[in-house]
Design a protein that fits this description.
Layout: H1 2-16, H2 19-26, H3 31-45, H4 48-56, H5 61-79, H6 85-114, H7 118-144, H8 149-170, H9 202-214, H10 217-230, H11 239-259, H12 265-270, H13 272-288, H14 294-325, H15 332-360, H16 362-390
Length: about 400
């Protein structure tokens, strides 16, 4: 599965770096059309997380994951066949759906096979995935120096082939044990209880709502920092890609060491307090970057990038552990699918939140960081009673189910 993560993210890095350019220069779409395509496909992709999770509770996980990888490959290859806007929209939406569903199912697979080491497994997976993103991005940057239509097409083909390779690797993986799917015999009594429905679990839905806010660090690096620097009179414009590299290197170097601080459910919950401080520091540092010259701007922007990267790594550990610990073993797929909505929804509201902070100025960034910090504290209290009541990760008889 680690090889799958590396191959998958390398291919995604090839496409993510050039998708806008491909739709602009190869298929001839306008800026408005490209924006609409991204928004609509992203909105449809939101459904992939809950649907994928629910299906995985009923069918063999590896088979569903292979099907999704094939769907992603076909959607990518289909983009090469047309410049019709409606078809491009449909193919992009199919790929987005497959991407979000596959993301949840990969997490579910890791949860079922890694046992008590699931937090460390998550950290190693994120490290490998970031290395893949970097490799794909560097390859795309090299290909862009050619700048021809053929170069763009080969990058998209490489993305599609990475999904084919991921499907072939997944076929070699054993089906993990699942508490939601058992083999019944004629001597077994018929099940009477229905699987828990996450859509009726108000506590879990409230937790997912707070997660949507905590995932906003993603929008900071993808939209917030580049736009803030681009509209700054003091910050060097070449600083934006350097801060992105800093973010990637920190995740690769520190995600695994930091994971040991959240190795248990109680420890993961405790990390919400330093996570709150990291978000607050990131927002304040962004605000202070507008108060001086080029040196001051560079110093505080770098401080902000470091703070938000630390927040990203801490939240990845906390989110992985709590999303599983709060879910009943018999409906892990359905619950993790609903949790996947948080990241999907954030992709839609995140750019709006950071652009609002930019438009408001330094005060906006302070409020941005403070809002996420307060949400961390709220989540810390929100999950306390549920964890003490269920203690899903503690009993030794259930650890193999996670």
């Amino acid at each position: 599965m680690l090889w799958i993560a590396l191959v998958d993210r390398t291919g995604s890095g090839l496409w993510a770096a050039v998708s806008v350019l491909y739709f602009t220069y190869v298929t001839g779409l306008s800026v408005a059309q490209v924006g609409t395509l991204a928004a609509v496909s992203g909105a449809i992709g939101i459904a992939g997380a809950p649907l994928g999770g629910r299906i995985a509770d009923r069918l063999p996980l590896t088979r569903v994951l292979i099907s999704l990888q094939i769907l992603r490959a076909l959607a990518s290859l289909a983009l090469l066949t047309t410049d019709n806007y409606a078809l491009l929209l449909a193919f992009s939406a199919a790929g987005s759906f497959g991407d979000r569903a596959a993301n949840v199912l990969t997490k579910l697979y890791a949860t079922r096979v890694s046992g008590p080491d699931r937090v460390r497994y998550q950290a190693v997976t994120r490290t490998v995935a970031n290395a893949g993103w970097a490799l794909g991005g560097l390859t795309a940057a090299a290909a862009l120096t050619i700048g021809t239509t053929t170069a763009y097409q080969w990058l998209l083909t490489g993305d599609a082939l990475s999904f084919v390779a991921a499907a072939l690797l997944t076929a070699r993986c054993a089906e993990p044990p699942s508490p939601a799917r058992t083999i019944a015999t004629s001597k077994d009594p018929a099940p009477t209880a229905r699987p828990t429905n996450p859509w009726r679990d108000r506590g879990y839905l409230a937790y997912v709502a707070t997660e949507t806010v905590l995932f906003l660090d993603d929008a900071v690096f993808k939209v917030g920092l580049p736009l803030w620097i681009a509209h700054s009179d003091q910050a060097p414009h070449g600083l934006a890609p350097l801060l992105m590299v800093l973010n990637n290197l920190m995740v690769v170097a520190l995600q695994v060491p930091l994971a040991r601080f959240g190795a248990t459910t109680a420890a993961a919950r405790s990390l919400l307090l330093p996570l709150s401080a990291a978000f607050a520091l990131g927002g304040v540092a962004m605000a202070l970057s507008a108060t001086g010259g080029a040196f001051t701007a560079t110093l505080f922007l770098t401080t902000s990038a470091v703070a938000f990267t630390v927040a990203e790594m801490l939240h990845a550990t906390v989110s992985w552990e709590l999303s599983v610990a709060l879910a009943p073993g018999t409906a892990q797929g359905a619950y993790l699918g609903v949790h996947g909505l948080a990241q999907s929804v954030q992709r839609s509201i995140g750019p709006l939140a950071v652009t609002a902070a930019i438009a408001t100025g330094p005060l906006g960034w302070t409020a941005f960081g403070a809002t996420i910090a307060v949400t961390c504290v709220f989540q810390h209290h929100l999950v306390r009673d549920r964890l003490s009541r269920t203690a899903l990760s503690v009993p030794s008889v259930t650890v193999s189910e996670h």
